[in-house]
């Protein structure tokens, strides 16, 4: 388990390069002309970790994990319950922190500065009036494509931390802890790249600040370590034909 923990921590540090680089180079999101095709691609990536497509992502990744781990039916059900608990805890932590810290999203800050609106006044409104006000503010904006404006209108909540990043990083780091020891290297690398893509998309779409992503990765790291401990302690994910890799996780 110590080896697994080290692997998760190392992988978390790799993911932290994304928000850390934004800090180091002084990158800040701005409402300027951007490559519409690039944004559209990033939007597709971000949707895989959103509420609607996120459910399909959960189903596909759960099936992938079960195929790799080859559990018996009873153990598979226990593992699925653990995955559900992991995702629920991550999103619950996100909701609590958002409502306590109340950090506005980058695109909202830019609009507020441009139109001289206090974010306190904006967030004092209910969701429907917020959407109406945001729609009015975005009418005069020519730097953002129409589809992105519609997306912003539906995302009037707080910024810190990033629920999308917690979701994606939790899956990626869980794969590091459970699938890497079983030598499913390509699967783990794919999930790490996908998770990185989700985080980059949240930054470039104006949805989150670097600190949001940074803290989200830390939250995911803790949740993944705890989940792997539960799996190795109570579920035992090593199937009989994979016993030879036990030495990798001792």
UniProtKB/TrEMBL annotation:
InterPro entries: PAP2/HPO, PAP2/HPO_sf. The chain crosses the membrane at residues 50-69, 76-97, 158-180, 187-207, 213-235. One of its GO terms (molecular function) is undecaprenyl-diphosphatase activity. Coiled coil: none annotated. SUPFAM superfamilies: Acid phosphatase/Vanadium-dependent haloperoxidase (SSF48317). It catalyses: di-trans,octa-cis-undecaprenyl diphosphate + H2O = di-trans,octa-cis-undecaprenyl phosphate + phosphate + H(+). Pfam families: PAP2. It comes from the Bacteria. Keywords: Membrane, Transmembrane, Transmembrane helix. Residues 80-228 form the Phosphatidic acid phosphatase type 2/haloperoxidase domain. CDD domains: PAP2_like. Its EC number is 3.6.1.27. SMART domains: acidPPc (SM00014). GO terms for cellular component: plasma membrane. NCBIfam families: PRK10699.1. This is undecaprenyl-diphosphate phosphatase. It comes from Candidatus Williamhamiltonella defendens.
């Amino acid at each position: 388990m110590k080896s697994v923990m080290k692997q998760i921590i190392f992988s978390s540090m790799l993911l932290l390069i994304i928000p850390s680089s934004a800090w180091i180079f002084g990158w800040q999101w701005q409402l300027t002309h951007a490559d519409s095709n690039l944004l559209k691609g990033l939007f597709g990536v971000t949707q895989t970790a959103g509420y609607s497509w996120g459910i399909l992502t959960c189903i596909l990744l759960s099936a992938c994990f079960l195929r790799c781990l080859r559990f018996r039916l009873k153990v598979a059900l226990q593992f699925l319950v653990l995955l559900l608990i992991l995702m629920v805890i991550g999103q619950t932590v996100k909701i609590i922190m958002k409502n306590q810290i109340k950090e506005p999203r980058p695109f909202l800050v830019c609009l507020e500065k441009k139109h001289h609106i206090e974010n306190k006044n904006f967030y004092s409104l209910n969701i429907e009036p917020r959407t109406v006000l945001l729609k009015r503010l975005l009418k005069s904006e020519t730097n953002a494509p129409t589809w992105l404006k519609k997306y912003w209108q539906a995302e009037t909540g707080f910024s810190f931390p990033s629920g999308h990043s917690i979701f994606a990083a939790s899956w990626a780091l869980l794969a590091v802890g459970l699938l890497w020891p079983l030598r499913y290297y390509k699967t783990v690398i794919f999930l790490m790249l996908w998770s990185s893509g989700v985080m980059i998309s949240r930054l470039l779409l104006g949805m989150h600040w670097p600190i949001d992503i940074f803290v989200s990765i830390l939250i995911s790291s803790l949740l993944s370590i705890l989940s792997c401990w539960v799996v190795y302690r109570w579920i035992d994910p090593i199937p009989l034909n994979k016993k030879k890799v036990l030495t990798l996780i001792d």
